Amino acid sequence: MSDGTGAGEGVRARPRLTVLSGPSGVGKSSVLAELRRRGPDIHFSVSVTTRRPRPGEVDGVHYHFVDAAEFRRMVDDGELLEHAEFAGNCYGTPRAPVERALASGKPSLLEIELQGARQVRAAMPGARLVMLAPPSWDDLVGRLTGRGTEDPAVVARRLEIAREELAAEPEFDDVVVNHDVGSAATSLLNLVVGPVPGTP
């Protein structure tokens, strides 16, 4: 395991898929938004989901929002690199955009849950799995309960799943601890494309 500050040398010559995973509430969306803001030449995979959009989410940018019937069709037609059910909703990664990006020489980054990450590792053994972890368990609990937008039973289930996901840390190639968004984004960028000159 590493903190992401010294990896990625091989990606320059042979771009590969990096999978970012981590428990709900750990800040994956914020870290990816910061990475996008910096404008690196990375293909950001957009997942398909049956989940309803949250306030501010844009179809085709944050997710491709589809109904259950369309999701089943994509699974049956082999259009998804991986798919999983999480908290009562289905998520999947379109296969074609990832394969096109890698074939064109561009590293690809996707953010998925643990079940999907395991499927990607099986389908693409060369993929790098990166876990985004909270500074502490108490910090994660505070983030999830502080949202105030979900039923307590749903939060309790998310915490139960989070324990399972964090226990899977040994399956990952690297772990980035999200002490703050900027540092976490730098570490992730180093893992995806290699160390950037002038960064710690």
From TrEMBL:
Entry EC no(s): 2.7.4.8
GO cellular component, one term: cytosol
One GO MF term attached to the UniProt entry: GMP kinase activity
Upper lineage: Bacteria, Bacillati, Actinomycetota, Actinomycetes, Pseudonocardiales
Region (Disordered) residue spans: 1-20
Organism: Saccharothrix syringae
Recorded catalytic activity of this chain's protein: GMP + ATP = GDP + ADP
Function: Essential for recycling GMP and indirectly, cGMP.
EC class of the enzyme, as a word: transferase
Name assigned to this protein: Guanylate kinase
UniProt xrefs under Pfam families: Guanylate_kin
Keyword Cytoplasm: yes
Localization (cell): Cytoplasm
Family according to the record: Belongs to the guanylate kinase family.
The Guanylate kinase-like domain, residue ranges: 15-193
Amino acids binding ATP: G22, P23, S24, G25, V26, G27, K28, S29
Gene3D superfamilies, per database record: Guanylate Kinase phosphate binding domain, P-loop containing nucleotide triphosphate hydrolases
Gene coding for it: gmk
InterPro entries: GK/Ca_channel_bsu, Guanylate_kin-like_dom, Guanylate_kinase, Guanylate_kinase_CS, P-loop_NTPase
This protein's UniProt keywords: ATP-binding, Cytoplasm, Kinase, Nucleotide-binding, Transferase
